[in-house]
From TrEMBL:
GO molecular function list: FAD binding
Entry-linked PANTHER family: OS08G0158400 PROTEIN (PTHR32448)
Protein name, per record: Reticuline oxidase
FAD-binding PCMH-type domain sequence ranges: 1-119
Pfam families: FAD_binding_4
InterPro entries according to UniProt: FAD-bd_PCMH, FAD-bd_PCMH-like_sf, FAD-bd_PCMH_sub2, Oxid_FAD_bind_N
Source organism of the structure: Capsicum baccatum
Coiled-coil stretches noted in the UniProt entry, renumbered to this chain: none
Source taxon at top rank: Eukaryota
Length: 262
């Protein structure tokens, strides 16, 4: 018995997730049932909901929907006396404690009842790596600290910093990897991506791209992941996709060109 079942009820917009399920299993079950529902947890699929939600649980949707624990509406808890308690029988104090107070402290979470969250059919995600010297990376991170909190709530932007030794594509001493996630197609950001009331006390040069977009000086276009030819140079796509992309950018083997030419 793995206690990893995820049972969804789309009508009430909730799901019971057993304490042994991983985030990956939870996301998968939700995605199989609906393409406009999601949940605000972390991005690592192997993490378990037992410890994750007990400690809060922060992820791509958290700027908009807060923590995973904030979206728990009920739970079954087995306490030290072996009693099985739901929200009503454990009381609001204990229910508050189990949502953020840490795993393995208040009892065993048999299952969480979570609120499913609204997500659009199309979202935008990106990963950008910027390797460089310590000063280059620290300048970027300094800038990120001002920009990230001022983005609209639908837009999540995190950065992780690694030494080049562990960074996958390190050129230079360090690497800053930016993970972005936007709850819509990027082209829908007509009004710009910075919240108007959040820019006070912040130098305007940090919002240069935002201003360009807002004024219509640059034109953002949607490129579906399957059509992103840039992936050819940064990822290892399946052979069929690789060939399609090679064809799309017009790349040819020199020997084929020479044979045709002669
Ligand atoms: C690769 C990786 C990526 C991560 N990414 C994120 C992220 O994006 N966002 C974020 O917020 N956190 C993230 N974390 C942190 C993660 O949420 C915590 O480490 C969490 O405690 C993991 O829970 P677990 O059940 O997988 O681990 P475990 O080590 O099994 O459990 C952690 C604690 O919770 C207890 N516990 C587990 N299950 C239950 C249960 N059913 N009832 C009661 N107690 C239980 C355990 O006894 C233990 O004390 C990440 C961790 C890793 C390893």
């Amino acid at each position: 018995m793995q206690l990893d079942r995820v049972s969804l009820d789309l009508r009430s917009g909730t799901a019971w997730v057993q304490g042994g399920a991983t985030l990956g299993q939870t996301y998968y079950a939700i995605s199989q049932a609906s393409n406009v529902r999601g949940f605000a947890t972390g991005s690592c699929p192997t993490v378990g909901v037992g410890g994750h939600i007990s400690g809060g649980g922060f992820g791509f949707l958290s700027r908009k929907y807060r923590l995973a624990a904030d979206n728990v509406v009920d739970a079954f808890l087995v306490d030290a006396q072996g009693r099985i308690l739901d929200r009503e029988s454990m009381g609001e104090e204990v229910f508050w404690a189990i949502r953020g107070g840490g795993g393995g402290i208040w009892g065993i979470i048999y299952a969480w009842k979570i609120r499913l969250l609204e997500v659009p059919k199309t979202v935008t995600s990106f990963v950008v790596s910027r390797p460089g010297s310590k000063s280059v990376v620290s300048r970027l991170v300094h800038k990120w600290q001002f920009v990230a909190p001022k983005l609209v709530d639908d837009f999540y932007l995190s950065v992780s910093i690694r030494s080049a030794a562990v960074a996958s594509r390190g050129i230079g001493e360090m690497n800053a990897q930016f993970n972005g996630f936007y709850l819509a197609c990027m082209t829908h950001l007509n009004g710009g991506f910075i919240k108007g009331d959040r820019t006070k006390h912040t130098t305007s040069k940090l919002f240069y791209i935002h201003e360009l977009q807002k004024n219509g000086d640059i034109n953002m276009q949607q490129i579906r992941s399957s059509d992103n030819v840039a992936d050819l140079f940064t990822k290892s796509p399946p052979i069929a996709t690789f060939k399609r992309m090679v064809h799309k950018i017009g790349m040819q083997m020199l020997k084929d060109v020479l044979i045709r030419g002669s």
